[in-house]
Amino acid sequence: MDKSSGTNLKSLWEQTVAPLRERLDSTDYTTWIEPMKPLAADDRSVEIAVPNRMFAAWVEENFLDELSDSWVRASGRNSRFHFSWGDVAPQGELFGRPAPAADSGHETAEKLAQELKQSRRRTTGLIERYDFTSFVVGPNNQFARAAAMAVSGQPGTLYNPFFVFGGVGLGKTHLANAIGHSVLAENPSARVLFMSADAFTNRLIDAISHNKVQEFKNRIRRVDVLIIDDVQFLAGRERTQQEFFHIFNALYERGSQIILTSDKYPNEMQGVEERLCNRFGSGLVADIQPPDAETRVAILERKAKEERIHLPLDVATHIAERFDSNIRDLEGALTRLSAWASLNRCEITLDLAANLLGETAPSERRPPTFDEIEARLTTYFGLKPGDLKARRRTRKISDARQVAMFLMRSLAGASFPAIGEHLGGRDHSTVVHGCGAVRKRCEKDARFRAVVETLVRELGCG
User: Fold this and answer.
1) Is the pTM of this model over 0.70?
2) For 393, phi and psi rounded to 5 degrees?
3) CATH number of the structural domain 370-458
4) Torsion, Cα of 87, 89, 90, 96 (10° steps)
5) Main-chain phi, psi angles of 444, to 5 degrees
């Protein structure tokens, strides 16, 4: 890289980040954009210095597209971004670099291994850091992880398709990538392809515009493992769904493993054809729930160890209490703390975490428990204790039971199997039907919708 034109590079960088300063929240800009410093640039790439590897990963995942677009507008060059950080002690020099050492066989082997990983990422689309060893297991994801490991051990034969669903930032993408990496570890010649539903749509559109649809479909039909992330984003895209339907069938018939992730259960995805939803749910469906407090602390400690960040237990506990919705928020909080500590050359402490991330919010509402929902509905509908779990099917009990299913799902965030088990050992498909029935009835019946809204308020969630 040409490092002689420092003044010009600084000017280009200022032009690049100026629009981001206007568009982004001031906290995001100060935390993620301001610490980056341009080191060098040429016609093909830009090298940026950042506090640490975790910071680089976060920027790549959340801001790289905006940075790249802004760089193209400022420089006129479509360059790749490379991030550098110092190989120093935790929270040490921000941009320190290790002293150069003589090349050795060990270093050569490491370089070759790194090149192999980069090549694999280009050809498979897999995210390098997402494997089974870095996936923290807890009660919220134990079944999904066990199923994923079983799929990776016998791809295309045991559970096909494998459908993982859950809220944003809970580890679905991580688990799907881990399967791909595990398959390749056992069989390096396996053809694995990971892409998001958006990427699939964009590639299909590109193929259509260049009259290469058949070539595009044939290329995907040859893979041994196809992983589509966030498949709910196929909703409303008729041509994409049509082509994916035929690709799905072709892969299934040849015994290729299909892995799908979504934020919704297959039959809950609005705008996706029924025949696709039926296929998505025809194999094994596993859900991931938000992690409990102990699992959140374990996730933080694992991440801190990987990034060589000294994280006291009281700080980890504070972050885990402050951010309880998903893993992405947890890692974002840790990254922000480590970046701040690195920039200001200070230790990570509880006071720093409280000042930077805010105090724990004890007033935040706790979701109602199964028992609380059951008790409230029993009283409201004038039922006897235990009626919701019984096999009786009078209209009143049936309505109340379906509303209970809906509230346990929407307010408590529980899985379909867990709800069915609580309500008398019912099958998860019964719960899926019950939730759907309540949702449809609310859309058509204003009086019934008012009943559901009243119950939501009485349970402290309205």
Assistant:
1) no
2) -130, 40
3) 1.10.1750.10
4) -50
5) -105, -25
Which residues, 6 or more positions from 310, have their beta carbon under 8 angstroms from its beta carbon?
90, 91, 304, 347, 348
For 1-88, the fitting CATH number among 3.30.300.180, 3.90.950.20, 2.120.10.30, 3.10.20.600 is 3.30.300.180
Per-domain boundaries in the chain:
1-88, 132-288, 304-357, 370-458
Q: What is the pLDDT along the chain (462 residues), one digit of tens a residue?
A: 444 355 688 888 999 998 888 877 777 788 788 888 888 888 788 889 888 777 787 787 778 878 888 888 888 888 888 888 764 333 332 223 333 344 444 555 555 455 445 444 446 788 888 889 888 888 888 889 999 999 999 898 888 999 999 887 888 999 999 999 999 988 888 889 998 888 888 888 888 888 888 888 888 888 999 999 999 889 888 899 999 999 999 999 989 999 999 988 888 888 889 999 999 988 899 888 888 888 888 888 888 887 788 888 888 888 888 887 778 788 888 888 887 877 778 888 888 888 888 755 444 456 788 888 888 888 888 888 888 888 777 888 888 999 999 888 877 777 788 888 888 888 877 888 888 888 888 878 878 887 888 888 777 665
CATH 3.40.50.300 correct for 132-288: yes
